[in-house]
Amino acid sequence: MVEKRKPIPVEEAISRVMKYKTIADKEVITIEESFGRFLAEDLIASHDVPAFNRSPYDGFAIRAEDTKEASANHPVRFEVVGEIGAGYVFEEEVMPFQAVRIMTGAQIPQGCDAVVMLELVKELEGQERPAILIKRLFKKGDNISYQGEDTEKGTVLVKKGTQINPGIVALLATFGYSKVSVAKRPVIGVIATGTELLNVDEPLAPGKIRNSNAYMIMAQIDRAGGQAKYYGKLNDDFEACLTATKQALSEVDMLITTGGVSVGDYDYVPVILKELGAEVLFNKVAMRPGSVTTVANLGEKMIYGLSGNPSACYVGFELFVRPVLRQALFNNFPHLRKTKATLGVDFTKPNPFMRLVRSRVDYVDGQLVASPSGVDKSGIVSSLGGADCLMLLPGGTRGYEKGMDIDILLLEDTQGSEWPWSNIVASYK
Amino acid sequence: MVEKRKPIPVEEAISRVMKYKTIADKEVITIEESFGRFLAEDLIASHDVPAFNRSPYDGFAIRAEDTKEASANHPVRFEVVGEIGAGYVFEEEVMPFQAVRIMTGAQIPQGCDAVVMLELVKELEGQERPAILIKRLFKKGDNISYQGEDTEKGTVLVKKGTQINPGIVALLATFGYSKVSVAKRPVIGVIATGTELLNVDEPLAPGKIRNSNAYMIMAQIDRAGGQAKYYGKLNDDFEACLTATKQALSEVDMLITTGGVSVGDYDYVPVILKELGAEVLFNKVAMRPGSVTTVANLGEKMIYGLSGNPSACYVGFELFVRPVLRQALFNNFPHLRKTKATLGVDFTKPNPFMRLVRSRVDYVDGQLVASPSGVDKSGIVSSLGGADCLMLLPGGTRGYEKGMDIDILLLEDTQGSEWPWSNIVASYK
């Protein structure tokens, strides 16, 4: 008997998944390990920046009022009473018509309120004590970086849940965070099923294909910020699959299986979920590829039955696993970033289900243009390599034409979207 | 005495750097380690895909000609002579009006040339031998994925030098690459100089700042695909700096120092380069920030004297280090990806030098719009955290207005540009 499944819209499927929150955990790591991780706490300025009034240039610190009368014809003479390298402090008070040689970044000495760049002074030679001439007026504050002018102590610089990029690493260092509190990477179990699967290092055999989904998903988990735990590939054997699923569930934060989700005689996922007492959120989605995707929940753990078909598996991960994973990383923009783009080719054939086409974005005069990265047939892997976005072509009775406005999801973007699934349309410009 | 330096245009500076090729090396790693690395060889299809004619659906394999007379009113009866799970092969020849139950992905049995989806047949019950009814015509080839229809054996699927994404991992697995030849990650030494620098875990002190550049650069190296080796921070001491530089140069593929590149009394980079006998490609670039960037070459090694100023240091890395590093990863698009965008704010103040403004890209109705990610003052780190692109505002005597077309460089893009530096302009739409 063929089980009848009712497909639900993609938006509805994601909504159901997002009702479940996987536990988010913290851990403390060193700043050297922090690149690419997700902040578990707001990054707060622990002091003013600059922390003191400082010189942005090499030059001479002076009292601006002493240059009142200075001009090209009437240069004013300053006695150089000291020198401050960056990192040193000039301890004395600077008096009228005195100057202190100051290096980039050094603290402005007491009494001074302007810096004259090195190129703008004439150093006098053959004097008893070093001296310079200044030929123009300087105002109070000229060439001074004031304490706190960039950032005041206590400012939230980067929000919790943000992925740490090189700029954020610089901020962590500046504010003394040699240890960083980051989200623990959720552990996601991966089980591939299918008697047709060969290991990657096995030679091809009649009727068999190599297991590519497990490796692909492990890379997707890595890209999304999680940690993959591979439980190997299993034949279509109910007892073996059930045992492996139970074992994995006891060790991971979420579990992904690929294959066995269809309505064929060897598709054991539905029975296993029943046996486990998991709540099935849906087992059919109105999308191509990936319509037979199944998602279930057992206590605090999500169980994903992704299709054995590589493209469907890929899309299923990005739509349903990624946002849950990102939420567990404290991220507030857990979905793939959705944006508008111009459709680069015709899609004449209508499809009742929403299509997610693996595509590549081009930037043409500042405009995003999306075209398929390969032949879009769901059994096909070659288009996956070049894809950096997914087109969203709403289901319906008509096709789409080159030049139309469509929605796309960016696969390699670092920012993400809060809730990208409202109002997906394609329209004429 | 102030040394006179002649600034050269940014494009010219990059041209000079790109004339030097750092040695690119290969290594073999496992597929599990391959995500994010760069292919050292073209990825070639080692067999046809599909490798055999297969069924994309669960259903029954039949001979299409036997359905010639089939209709709703005159269903045709087929005897079910066997069953093929995915991964199994049906050894016998299928005869007229025989059908074989076939699972998704399984090999089409000899004699069959069409698959009827499970949902479209009526299974007859209570028969001596299993049988089905088919109620419509099927054509030869219906629901068959033909051998090689996705990809023919020998096809170059992904070019050498491409960064491995999850889709490429799937391809590697499909074609049996359990070991992958990838570019060795060049080792890049990092030395921070400046007596004003504190370690990240030291408390703030008068006149001092924490060393943020070294950590930032190490993350930039990581993002670009290299491997950082940190030689610590040094005070402005000529002998110590020279010794560390020599030591580092004997151990790394390229070397980056930060600080000490200006014309101040403690700026030892020029003297050290002279002492080493390095060829200085340039020591001043007509850009803000980062005008005092110095790049030199010694044999097969590049030596970068980046500014001690965080923003200048960041930009100097992305413009001058990244492309050389990416070339050493066999990558043909080593520069940051350049594209057009709409300027999101006014920049009224003209600057004789080209400005590179740390910015954030927004997608507004499929159009890229770039706005500064923070206050753009070169001493300021807080804007680095939110930057995902650099605006290019050509030097000149006029400012720029919101809504103009400008060029930007994408920091987080995975694709890159071949030679992004021709014809940088800003114009009214």
UniProtKB/TrEMBL annotation, chains A, B:
Reactions the enzyme catalyzes: adenylyl-molybdopterin + molybdate = Mo-molybdopterin + AMP + H(+)
Catalytic EC class: transferase
Alphabetical list of InterPro entries matching this protein: MoaB/Mog-like_dom_sf (IPR036425), MoaB/Mog_dom (IPR001453), MoeA-like (IPR038987), MoeA_C_domain_IV (IPR005111), MoeA_C_domain_IV_sf (IPR036688), MoeA_linker/N (IPR005110), MoeA_linker/N_sf (IPR036135)
Top-rank lineage group of the source organism: Bacteria
Domain MoaB/Mog: 189-327
Keyword set, alphabetical order: Magnesium, Metal-binding, Molybdenum, Molybdenum cofactor biosynthesis, Transferase
Pfam families recorded: MoCF_biosynth, MoeA_C, MoeA_N
Required cofactor names: Mg(2+)
Pathway the protein contributes to: Cofactor biosynthesis; molybdopterin biosynthesis
EC number(s) recorded for this UniProt protein: 2.10.1.1
Family stated for the protein in its record: Belongs to the MoeA family.
Main function: Catalyzes the insertion of molybdate into adenylated molybdopterin with the concomitant release of AMP.
Protein name, UniProt field: Molybdopterin molybdenumtransferase
